[in-house]
Amino acid sequence: MEKLYADPTGRSAHLGQYSASAALKNAEADAKRAHGRGRVYTGTVALSDQRVTKVDATGKIPNATVSSCLDVSKWQPIDAKSKKPVSLPKNRLTKYVIVSTVEKYPQGWRVTSDEPQGKSC
Asked: Angle at CA 41, nearest 5°, toward 1 and 71?
């Protein structure tokens, strides 16, 4: 995600190696929207407190649900032309719970959905 949002062309991200389905489409659309507004993102995103909350290894596509704390406090939107930080609301969540579904594809595990829970962690 860091590479996708940092590169307006999106070519360097290779996000398809890590995500698929709705997660891939949503990430690409969100990054395209940010780039369309003249923004790129710099810095880092961190995940912590990852917990597998559900596993289905018997279905046609093995999958698991994972709850994590997503920390975007060190990820900054920058105006691509001026290279200056874009101001953000002071009350925005920078560390929040996100629930992800991962599925096992022939090439390996892929994130297929991400759902921010709207609560801090």
From this structure: 60
Q: Is the pTM of this model over 0.70?
A: yes
Task: Report d(CA 62, CA 11) in Å as an integer.
Answer: 29
Q: Which residues contact 67 (CB under 8 A, 6 or more apart)?
A: 49, 50, 51, 53, 97, 98, 99, 100
At which residue do the structure tokens 């599925």 appear? 103
pLDDT tens for the chain, residues 1 to 121:
899 999 888 777 889 999 999 999 999 999 999 999 999 999 999 999 999 999 999 989 999 999 999 999 999 999 999 999 999 999 999 999 999 999 999 999 999 999 999 999 9
d(CA 22, CA 35): 20
| Helices and strands, counts by H and E, the chain | 2, 6
* Residues in the chain, overall count: 121
